[in-house]
Amino acid sequence: MKTDLTGRTAFVTGATSGLGRRFATVLAEAGAAVAIAGRRLERLESLKAEITAKGGKCAAVALDVTDARRIAPALEEAEKALGPIDILVNNAGMNSQGAVLAISDAEFDQVMNTNLRGPFLMARETARKMIARGKGGSIINIASIGALRVLPGLTAYCMSKAALAMMTQCLAREWARKNINVNAICPGYIETELNSEWFHSEKGQEQINSFPRRRLAAEQDLDGMLLLLASPAARAITGALLTVDDGQSL
Ligand code: NDP
């Protein structure tokens, strides 16, 4: 899909691995200046070097999305380096696997703080800036098929993603007249550091064989949806929960 994002600035959370890394690269290749954020600084620096070596504009920003005090300064840093943010990709997330009776309070809180509170704080602070500037923008939340149906053994994860999906719709409604589009991509299973161990286990292989296409989706399968939502072609798409799962939930 050819999309020209020249002159736009994107901010991608959780860009140090997996989908976030891919999103940052794809947005940069489409011409956007990209702020990449995460906790593992050496990975941010190597991705920045990769993007700039290909002629892209990139800034690396240290950010733990559970640290509320870092949200505004991180966005400030990005805007200082690259200009006002037009596109926010709320991608940082974590998994939590196991029976409900075995989940500790601390783990539950960490999942909610990472997958829900972090994206909320990021969206709110970014929208504050977008509204002040008056040009609108696009907020893309990375949810999951677990936002829409039960994934056994992933209760806290599904709860956090379902709330993120509702947040997407609430924010889309609240900021509709500010020309801020808020959408969620709900991906199916894609092998990344989040789940690689599971999919290499016997039970993980069985799960793959239960999917209609007997395969995992690939990182690049989200490129089209990401670019569409980041582009002006998505003017009338807001509050949408867009499943991209290779038919896994059918
Ligand atoms: P990875 O584990 O590969 O990447 C997760 C990213 O999130 C890392 O870059 C990590 O960076 C970042 N992150 C985690 N916690 C924090 C935090 N507290 N503050 C800032 N960044 C954080 O997983 P994926 O790429 O697979 O996942 C990306 C998103 O996609 C997640 O929201 C996930 O739920 C969602 N998703 C993934 C699916 C899949 O099958 N892979 C399916 C559906 C949704 P660092 O550690 O450097 O901070």
How would you sum up this structure, described in words?
There is one protein chain. It is built from 8 helices and 7 strands. The chain has 250 residues and is of the alpha/beta class. It has one domain: NAD(P)-binding Rossmann-like Domain (Rossmann fold, 3-Layer(aba) Sandwich). α1 links the parallel β1 and β2. α1 packs across α8 and α3 packs parallel to α4. It is globular. The two termini are 26 Å apart. The model has no long low-confidence stretch (mean pLDDT 97). The structure holds NADPH dihydro-nicotinamide-adenine-dinucleotide phosphate. The site of NADPH dihydro-nicotinamide-adenine-dinucleotide phosphate has 29 residues, from α1.
Beta-strand portion reads 5-15%
Helix content: 40-55%
Q: If helices are DSSP runs of H or I spanning 4 or more residues, what is the number of helices?
A: 8
- Structural class comes to alpha/beta
Radius of gyration: 17 Å
The count of strands amounts to 7
Q: What characterizes the major β-sheet?
A: 7 strands, parallel
The overall pLDDT average reads 97
Concise summary:
The chain has 250 residues and is of the alpha/beta class.
Q: Top keywords for this entry?
A:
250 residues; seven-stranded parallel beta sheet; 44% helix; alpha/beta; binds NADPH dihydro-nicotinamide-adenine-dinucleotide phosphate; Rossmann fold
Set out the fold topology:
Layout: E1 9-12, H1 18-29, E2 33-38, H2 41-53, E3 58-62, H3 68-82, E4 87-90, H4 105-133, E5 137-142, H5 155-174, E6 180-187, H6 196-199, H7 202-210, H8 223-230, E7 241-244
Parallel strand pairs: 1-2, 1-4, 2-3, 4-5, 5-6, 6-7
Helix pairs in contact: 1-8, 3-4, 4-5
This protein binds NADPH dihydro-nicotinamide-adenine-dinucleotide phosphate.
